[in-house]
Amino acid sequence: MSKYELDTPALLVDLDVMEANIAHVAAVCRAAGVDWRPHVKSHKTVEIARKQIAAGAIGVTCAKLGEAEVLAAAGITDILIANQIVGDIKVRRLMALPEKTDVIVSVDSAQNVAELADAAKAVGRNLRVVIEVNTGMNRSGAEPGAPVVALAGIIAKRPSLKLVGVMGWEAHVTAIADQVVKAKAVADAIALLTSSADACRAAGHDMSIVSCGGTGTLLYCVSQLGVTEVQVGGAIFNDEHYRTHYGIDLPCALTVLTTVISRPNPTRVILDAGRKAMSNDMALPRPLGLNVASVKLSAEHAQIELAVPSDTPHIGDKVELVVGYSDTTIHLHEEIVGLRGGEIESVWKVAGRGKIK
User: Fold this and answer.
1) Are 25 and 47 within 8 A, CB to CB?
2) SS3 of 267, please?
3) What is the assigned CATH class of domain 3-10+249-349?
4) Dihedral sign, CA of 320, 326, 330, 331?
5) Parts of the chain belonging to CATH 2.40.37.20
6) Computed from CA positions of residues 16, 19, 24, 27, in that sequence, does the dihedral angle turn out positive or negative?
7) Where in the chain is the domain with CATH 3.20.20.10?
């Protein structure tokens, strides 16, 4: 069945491109001697996570406990939740994960450490934790250096917790255009993480994991001395945001297929997909095969203005658009259609869709 026989809007992934991108990221990590623990918040799909692990990923990173529950139910066992799990409801859910799921949870406060330790002790579990370090993003995370070491000491007093390392995310440097400046900014940010790990080791704590990195710093994070793993996720799709704002030179794998439903004049093309099918928060989707002057999204429509008048595309024709930002597009869809050579090979449920708790 051809992709052009699909009802629209439809979320498509070119399997050849995605698999090549997966192989590329895995190879970059291997060459640098670091592990790959890809973030699944970009795809939220069990089958893609399995492809990443088959290519060499040691496990996965989740943004939310709900994502971890989906992946654990699918048999994926090495899961880092790069977020704080806080409150009775969530902590009970965390402890209810299958025993074989050797989950790792991020912490940045003594209060959360106590909460997790008491819950783990109550169910006879030994829970792995990493300390999140603020490397300059100024979101979550303990301040680097002495505060991290102090928190490590608090964790060490809790036998139901096992401190295994630190993690951070240098997001604040991702959009720096000058590559020389960006390289130094990445190095400076990650140095706050690795030096904190070194200080913890000097105090006698296990720092097997030093985790950081994302698609926006892919070219630099893997080469930083002391990093053991990176969480690069969205590069497997390389959407318009990563391509234009972060300079990631990989082919784009993720698109939305739409139908032309109106041609009010020779320069205007109206499609049957808007912000409810493809986001424009980080970058606008890019129509393929058209000479485009502008793209505008409303809730259920895309309005394309052509650079020159044209009779085509006609009403009923299909138009494919490269996704603007995968993280905020995939969760809008119930399924991803996998294509090989333009033909449908697979249809995968977006099993992590709606898992925001």
Assistant:
1) no
2) coil
3) mainly beta
4) negative
5) 3-10+249-349
6) negative
7) 15-235
User: What is the spatial distance between Cα 290 and Cα 143, in angstroms, rounded to a whole number?
Assistant: 49
The Cα 111–Cα 103 span in angstroms is: 20
In angstroms, what CA-CA distances link 148 with 102, 144, 169? 23, 6, 15
To which residue do tokens 């790990």 refer? Answer: 197
In whole angstroms, what is the distance from residue 296 CA to residue 340 CA?
Answer: 30
State the Cα–Cα distance between residues 223 and 265, nearest whole angstrom: 53
- Model-level pTM? 0.96
**What sign results for the dihedral spanned by CA atoms 14, 16, 22, 28?**
negative
User: 325, 240, 343, 245: which is closest to 288 by C-alpha?
Assistant: 240
Q: What is the pLDDT along the chain (357 residues), one digit of tens a residue?
A: 999 999 999 999 999 999 999 999 999 999 999 999 999 999 999 999 999 999 999 999 999 999 999 999 999 999 999 999 999 999 999 999 998 999 999 999 999 999 999 999 999 999 999 999 999 999 999 999 999 999 999 999 999 999 999 999 999 999 999 999 999 999 999 999 999 999 999 999 999 999 999 999 998 999 999 999 999 999 999 999 999 999 999 999 999 999 999 999 999 999 999 999 999 999 999 999 999 999 999 999 999 999 999 999 999 999 999 999 999 999 999 999 999 999 999 999 999 999 999
Structure tokens at 336: 């991803």
Q: Please give the Cα distance from 134 to 144 (Å, whole number).
A: 6
**CATH number 3.40.50.720 is the correct assignment for the domain at 15-235:** no
Strands (E) across 46-181 are located at 60-62, 79-81, 104-107, 127-132, 161-167
